[in-house]
Write a structure and sequence with these properties.
The chain has 177 residues and is α+β, with helices and mostly antiparallel strands. The chain has one domain (3-176): Aminopeptidase. It contains 5 helices and 7 strands, in the order βααβββαβαβαβ. The relative contact order is 0.16.
Length: 177
């Protein structure tokens, strides 16, 4: 299974491809974070994805011509890049596509002079565990990410203030490139 990667520019993706990516990301986050929010908040929108593409901050993974996943990749500061909204087609999960997307994000970050790659994981701050988030923290650890710091989720994302079903924190993981 050969996976190719693209950092598309405006005009490179069709409307259907944008919609596929938006729907994929929204579905993944709805399924894995539904219990953390009072009401469902779509993780992204067509407009946000178009903006990320216009700013060359989105990675698309393909097998042949078909999109199988993607994530955003952007500068956080002079030393750190961050990725997020990682999603792969459900029927292909467990086949290494997410890992390969993260490896590509790390390679691109290193080429652009960054020393670290960051990943943020939303996690309950009330002492409870979260099976999917526990899996994600373990998986990122296997990929070389280590605990870096924590923030309250609402401190990082003001727009969600009052929308959380329970207190949450943002666990920030970091990998040396």
């Amino acid at each position: 299974m050969e996976i190719t990667f693209q950092i598309p520019q405006t005009g490179d993706l069709t409307r259907e491809e944008y919609e596929l990516l938006v729907n994929l990301i929204v579905k993944v986050y709805e399924e894995t974070e539904a219990d953390l929010f009072k009401t469902q908040i779509p993780r992204t929108s067509l407009e946000e994805l178009q903006e990320l593409v216009a700013e060359k901050q989105f990675i698309v993974a393909r097998i042949g011509q078909g999109i199988v996943g993607g994530c955003y990749l952007r500068r956080r500061n002079d030393e750190e890049a961050e990725f997020g909204m990682l999603a792969t087609l459900p029927e292909l999960q467990g086949q290494g596509i997410g890992r390969r997307i993260i490896e590509f994000a790390g390679s691109e970050s290193r080429k652009n002079g960054f020393k670290y790659l960051l990943a943020d994981v939303l996690y309950p701050a009330d002492g409870s565990s979260h099976p999917y988030k526990d899996f994600l923290l373990s998986w990122y650890g296997k990929l070389g990410f280590n605990y870096h710091r924590e923030l309250t989720f609402e401190a990082k994302y003001e727009k969600v203030k009052g929308m959380m079903a329970r207190p949450c924190k943002m666990i920030i993981l970091r990998k040396t490139l």
